[in-house]
Specification:
With 293 residues, the chain is α/β, with parallel strands linked by helices. The protein has helices at 3-23, 39-52, 72-75, 88-98, 110-116, 121-126, 172-178, 192-204, 226-232, 245-252, 271-285, and strands at residues 60-64, 79-82, 103-109, 132-137, 183-188, 209-214, 233-235, 258-265. The protein contains eleven helices and eight strands.
Length: 293
């Protein structure tokens, strides 16, 4: 057997092993996304991250709100919490404070996270809660059949805006940066390998990780398509200083550009670390007992 063929067979066996182990990460529910939905790539990125970081089912909690991605906790073999509309981030904050050692991933759409739940993002970011937020952005309300969402571009037509969206969209990247997120990134479902890497880096980061995912809705959004994103996306320059906040903001606000990659990353103390420091301080001044004021 020649060397090339032998290496090829070994590689194929390794791929089968990985596929088998990733399949073990699947939950009890079967994904109900439409065929071609970008959310499949985001779900696979979670499986891949669990595999690459050797995260077991008992060491992960997935929290979701309402929307097409709302049942995500059931699609993954781990603990899950399907919360109320827009409340995934505060629920996840409570989970992390209750058990700082567990990995917490929040999965939500642009409507759930930036409309009814939009008031929670600034506080999760500024407090630097050590959780990973996968914001699956299809720029439409897909579950309710095609109304405009907070990230719908100006002028786009929908079931509620037949003459075009009169408002301007929110920018999740700029919002996250301004409010203090310590890991800010963007991926695209059309580039699953890159998305896997970004999600893995987000989970590894100690602090609030925003992973904005361009996730086309193939059923109700005929404007923000895979083809459009293949043409309009561009990778961020390599060999950048990821701690340079001003540069990150610069790339986030470039008109007409959808940059992909990690915009910003910096290690700062997390909410859980600050909370534990407070507990230790209170205990020290009360002879080791935590008492009420």
């Amino acid at each position: 057997m020649n060397e090339r063929k032998r290496k090829g067979e070994i590689l194929e066996r390794l791929k089968k092993i990985k596929r088998k182990e990733i399949a073990e990460k699947h939950g009890i529910l079967r994904p109900i996304f439409c065929g071609g939905c970008g959310h499949f790539a985001a779900l696979h990125a979670i499986y891949n991250t669990m595999f690459d970081l050797n995260i077991s089912a008992k060491d992960l909690v997935i929290v979701s709100g309402i929307g097409c991605s709302g049942r995500s906790p059931g699609f993954v073999n781990c603990f899950g919490f399907h919360g109320a509309h827009g409340r995934a981030l505060p629920i996840a904050t409570g989970v992390k404070l209750a058990n700082p050692d567990i990995h917490v991933i929040v999965v939500g759409g642009d409507g759930d996270g930036l409309s009814i739940g939009g008031g929670h993002l600034p506080h999760a970011a500024r407090m630097n809660v050590n959780i990973t937020y996968l914001l699956l952005d299809n720029s439409i309300y897909g579950l309710t059949k095609g109304q405009i969402a907070p990230t719908t571009p100006y002028g786009n037509k929908s079931s509620t805006t037949p003459y075009g969206n009169p408002g301007k969209p929110l920018d999740p990247i700029a919002l996250s940066l301004i409010h203090g997120a310590t890991f800010v990134s963007r991926g695209f479902s059309g580039y699953p390998d890159d998305l896997n890497r970004i999600v893995t880096e987000g989970v590894k980061h100690k602090g609030f990780s925003m992973v904005h995912i361009l996730s086309p809705c193939v059923t109700f959004n005929k404007n923000e398509t895979y083809e459009k994103y293949y043409d309009s996306t561009e990778n961020l320059p390599e060999k950048r200083d990821l701690t340079n906040f001003e540069e990150a903001v610069h790339y986030s606000i470039q008109s007409g550009k959808n940059y992909l990659g990690i915009f910003y990353q910096k290690r700062e103390t997390t909410l859980e670390e600050n909370a534990l420091n407070t507990i230790h301080t209170v205990g020290k001044y009360n002879d080791g007992r935590i008492t009420s004021a």
